[in-house]
Design a protein that fits this description.
Shape: rod-shaped
CATH architecture of the domain at 147-335: Beta Barrel
Order of helices and strands: HHHHEEEEEEEEEE
Number of helices: 4
Largest sheet: 8 strands, antiparallel, barrel
Structural class: alpha+beta
Distance between the termini: 151 Å
């Protein structure tokens, strides 16, 4: 009986000690943890009306995130429809639709700007090339005009009675420089007028005869000359050829017969000495550059073709006559 009371007493004391120890340990642990979670304060509620934290311990962050998500307002139905429509449009776009506005990506604007810059640069570069080409052509080929006047003398069979004639010429000039050695090529498109004069006297037993004739020719000429500037200076020489195309010609022939009975003058006969359609000759050119764009020259042209159209000559005294004209002209040229 005594032992039972003793054991019961020890049991009660032990239970009381354990309860007291547990209360003391729990307070210490709770205070330390609360301090770490509450900025160093161990008070759960400092007297303010703020409510105590709704969550303390591990898992609070996840709970807070979930709560925030649940508190976020849902997107409006119109916005959801716009997003869905944009997604559908993007899915419907194909490479062939890349130029459509709804299928363009945001960087397309910058790509377009780069394309525009590239195109502008291409245009500018080609403009520069074109301008350089024109300038190079202008320096290589110089255009201008030439005016000249001179005399002519015919040589050939029965040509001794053909006297000096006169002529004038004028036209366009194109001069092209060849390299840097002083060589250049000159081509002209000239309009020329030439007049040939004929006077002859024949003495017979019973009478004498005096013949006079003129031939006037307008022709279109194409001289082509290769020139060389001596020591690349101002004096130059040139060799070339000349092609002439007859535009029109007029001739007159008049006879005067002196007999013992008196002088008989016949009426002039027109166009009985027709000229040939084409002329071809060689050129020797001598000249001097006054300035870079102006020069004078003395040109010698010797024709290799007959002036007269032998097949249709109507004057008996002119039959079998061949006239190879030598033309000497002094000209002045201006380059623009």
């Amino acid at each position: 009986m005594l032992n039972a009371k003793f054991i019961l007493t020890l049991a009660i004391l032990s239970l009381f000690g354990t309860f007291a120890f547990a209360q003391e340990y729990e307070a210490e642990v709770d205070s330390a943890w609360i301090a770490s979670q509450n900025g160093g304060s161990t008070e759960m509620n400092d007297g303010n009306d703020e409510a105590a934290p709704s969550c303390i311990g591990d898992g609070c962050d996840e709970s807070a995130s979930q709560a925030a998500e649940s508190n976020t307002p849902a997107a409006a139905p119109e916005e959801k429809a716009k997003v869905a429509s944009a997604a559908d449009d993007e899915e419907d776009c194909t490479p062939a639709d890349s130029l459509l506005p709804e299928c363009r990506d945001t960087p397309a604007a910058s790509d377009d700007d780069e394309d525009d810059d590239t195109y502008d640069r291409y245009i500018n570069e080609n403009s520069d090339i074109s301008r350089a080409s024109r300038e190079g052509f202008t320096k290589a080929v110089e255009l201008g005009f030439r005016l000249g006047a001179g005399i002519n003398k015919s040589f050939g069979h029965n040509a001794e009675d053909w006297n000096l004639g006169i002529e004038v010429t004028g036209g366009l000039v194109a001069q092209m420089n060849i390299g840097n050695g002083g060589f250049s090529t000159v081509m002209e498109l000239d309009f020329s007028y030439r007049r040939y004069n004929y006077e002859a006297e024949f003495v017979y037993d019973d009478y004498s005869e005096s013949d006079e004739a003129t031939i006037s020719i307008a022709l279109f000429e194409i001289p082509v000359i290769l020139r060389y500037a001596i020591n690349e200076g101002n004096f130059f020489v040139g060799l070339g050829f000349d092609l002439g195309l007859k535009l029109t010609d007029v001739s007159t022939f008049q006879q005067t017969i002196d007999t013992k009975k008196g002088v008989e003058e016949e009426d002039p006969r027109d166009n009985t000495l027709p000229a040939a359609l084409l002329e071809l000759g060689g050129i020797v050119d001598l000249g001097y550059y006054i300035t870079r764009n102006a020069f004078v020259d003395v040109r010698f042209l010797q024709n290799f073709t007959n002036l007269l159209n032998e097949d249709v000559i109507a004057e008996t005294t002119m039959l079998k006559t061949t006239l190879y004209g030598l033309h000497v002209t002094v000209g002045v040229s201006f380059l623009l």
